[in-house]
């Protein structure tokens, strides 16, 4: 939903690839060929945006099915409903933050595009390559957020802090997430991909993950489970059990996890949330509970070196003089 809204704003503002950014600047190019390139890019962007919208819109029918399933199995309790509303409350933060982040990063990406001598034309093949590259970048970003305490406590732990797992969990994001994470896409722009294509590809990667936040879909066909991220893989990713910690980072493709040694099959129903649960559905606690703990730890650290180590090292890292762990491990 957020990716869909951001892409819609991008397109409504007229921030679409220009003919100059898609066509070679050689004087021998004809206006007809430039127009054709522009039409191809516009149609590509429109198709990708429609696919993203379709992927994110599944939240409505899936959530309705989940609600019926939870009611029939006796799990639609007061606390579960509060948790769902707590998840949805994140929209009040991430929608405006996402708009600001989109405008800021697109402006930066346009400046990079003007500065770089590299330029990759937009066509169906390069769009596919861009999507795969952006998904790989997402894997690296996601892994970085789990393996370093600053991004974990600042924003990514928000998404993992619910003890439940359903379609509303996909909405549970931090405002800092919406502001900062598009910056990881910078390498794709530096090597010559058009900023709009990169951002739309990122929207597709994020939008794909809407449907995988559910317990009502158990397993996909084996070939699909081998290549793509699925509800089963993502349930394992959200598990706070030791076997599931820091696993299954992929966005669309689970192949990256298989290649880089972070894949874990779902062997049993995970315990969702953090290793130390926040035990609150209050929107303020959802957004800031782990950040408060980080600030408290930084204040108690004896020197700058220890503070920098804490920010860089994994969640749960302890200074040599510490005993209790005040930050929950990444899950």
Task: Report what the structure shows.
With 331 residues, the protein is mainly alpha-helical. It has one domain. It is 60% helix and 0% strand. The protein is built from 16 helices and no strands. Helix 1 packs antiparallel against helix 3 and helix 1 crosses helix 6 (91-115). The protein is globular, with a radius of gyration of 21 Å. The two termini are 23 Å apart.
Short structural description:
With 331 residues, this protein is mainly α. The protein has helices at 2-12, 19-22, 31-57, 59-72, 78-88, 91-115, 124-147, 149-160, 175-180, 186-190, 195-208, 222-227, 231-237, 255-260, 283-300, 304-312.
Structural topology:
Layout: H1 2-12, H2 19-22, H3 31-57, H4 59-72, H5 78-88, H6 91-115, H7 124-147, H8 149-160, H9 175-180, H10 186-190, H11 195-208, H12 222-227, H13 231-237, H14 255-260, H15 283-300, H16 304-312
Helix pairs in contact: 1-3, 1-6, 1-11, 3-11, 7-8, 7-11, 8-15
